[in-house]
Each structure stands twice: as structure tokens, then as C-alpha cells.
Amino acid sequence: MLSLGLGTAAIGRPQYINIRQEAPKDFSLADFREAGRKILDIAYEEGIRYFDTAPGYGLAEQLVLDWVKEKQDPTIEVATKWGYTYVANFDPKAEVHEIKEHSLKKLKEQWKQSKKLLPYLKVYQIHSATFETGVLGNQAVLNQLAELKADHNLLMGITTSGANQVEVIQKALEVVINGVPLFDAFQVTYNLLDQSLAQISQQLLQENKRMIIKEALANGRIFPNEKYPQYTDLYKVLGSLAKKYEVGIDAIALRFCMDSIMPYKVLSGAAKAFHLTENIKTERFKLTREDIGRLKQFAITPTTYWKERKELTWN
To answer: Per CATH, the architecture of 4-310 is what?
Structure first.
């Protein structure tokens, strides 16, 4: 089975936090839905069996639900989340795209829909767990998650964002319900720029936890861009490695995530067939220890990374 999975945020809503590479076109919801369906089919044909979605991703969760029910393939693994509600209504000019709420009410509300993904649903996650929402200390929510985990044989997880990802993971590892650790899976931002997950990756592996990597391409910042002159040396090394392995820069960045910390999956966020097929080239090769060492040198502090990310726009 491939190490690559497919994240569905970009095929579920017309805007995402990223660096735009081309001008937007007139938006058609019907065309957008059909394009998303084609990406799912291409991913499947290429061997991908892990699909990550969420109610906060616009139409993505329903798209995945309809698709897996047709596929009827027990090898498909679906991960979904709860905690964000999509409110932009597919309006490219929307000011607000999503609303976060980690209440017991929101959990129960979103579970009613997400449970329809069973039996393909394997991982259920708190969407962007943070200290600010208090979700990791909300006993009613934690008890409900433990109940869902036991009743449906799910892996329970969290996704993380922000400069204090490692601290959030450490807090989640301490959550025990009825003598059993609650969380099994951790979907975390990790890439050439923010390598902070490496601080705790060995512990996660030793405790048999799943690491699922998101934002492996740093929202587009790993591609040469004159707006980021501080990454000129990184771009040169990525270019040389891409030439060495006869793949794109994206494949090098994805492979770095796979080879440097041994995660369960690394998610492609591709919304176009060409990007997806380029991403899948990452399965053709492995980086050498020397290659990984060269790339590790370009890590920046989490604070710097997330400050830059906040300056990116929805587009």
C-alpha cells in the first residue's frame, strides 16, 4: 500500500490557504464537484487507499461518502474530523470560511453525518485541537470520543496546527479514559520548514501511534518564489535533488517527510490530476541519508513558520 494518502480540503471547497499559482476562473459548483470526483478516482487508480476529509471541507465529506459507497472496497481507509463548520457557501468572495467549535453539541451533530462513512471510516479526529478551545480537558467530549472509539472500533486522533503542535500532542498523549489512552493517531503539519514534529516522532512510533503528515508542501512555500529570498538555498538543493531523481520538487518534499520520520501516511492535497500524478512519483524512490541531512538544515522555528503561514490568504 502506498505511503501517500489524499487530503480532500482542496477538492471540497473552492478556496484554501495557499500560494496561488494561477488566476481564478468563474466558479461552478457542479463542475467543482465533478472535478473532485475525478481526483478521487485517479487517486484510487494510482493505488491510494487512505482518504482524509472533514465537514469543514465544504462538500468533501459528502463527496467521499458517495464515492466509497460506490467503490465498495474494504481496503479503503477514511479519516474524518469534527469541530469545524464550513460557512462560506462556496462563495469565492466570502469573508469567513469556517467556524471552529469543540463542544459536545458540535461533536454529536457532526457525528450523525460522519458515521455514515462506516465501515470505511477508520480514524476519527478532533479538527485542529488547541489549548485555547480546552477540548483536551473537556471530560464530556473525551468520554463521548472514548465511547465512539469502543463502539465502532475506531482509531481516535487529533489534528494540530500552530507553533505549539508538539505541546498539544504531549497533552493528548496524557489523556486516558478508563485506563486506556484515548488517542491513537496524530495528523500534524510537518515539512522542510517546520520540522518540530521530529522532537516527538520517536516517542509516537515507540507507543505505536500513527503519524499522518499534512501540509507537506508548506502551503506552496517549497516552490521557488521571489517573495521568499530567505529560501534561495533551499530552492537550489530541491532543484538539484529533483534533477537527480527525475521528479518534481513536490515529490522531493513529500519523500523527505516519508524518509525522515517514518509516518503512517503523508497526505497529498492535490486538486488537479497533474499535481496528483506528480505527487505519486514520490513512491518511485527513496532519499539517501545524505540527502535527508542536507534538507534538514533548512528547518526554521515553528514561530517563524506559523507567522509566515498566517500571512497567506484564502484563495
So the answer is: Alpha-Beta Barrel (3.20)
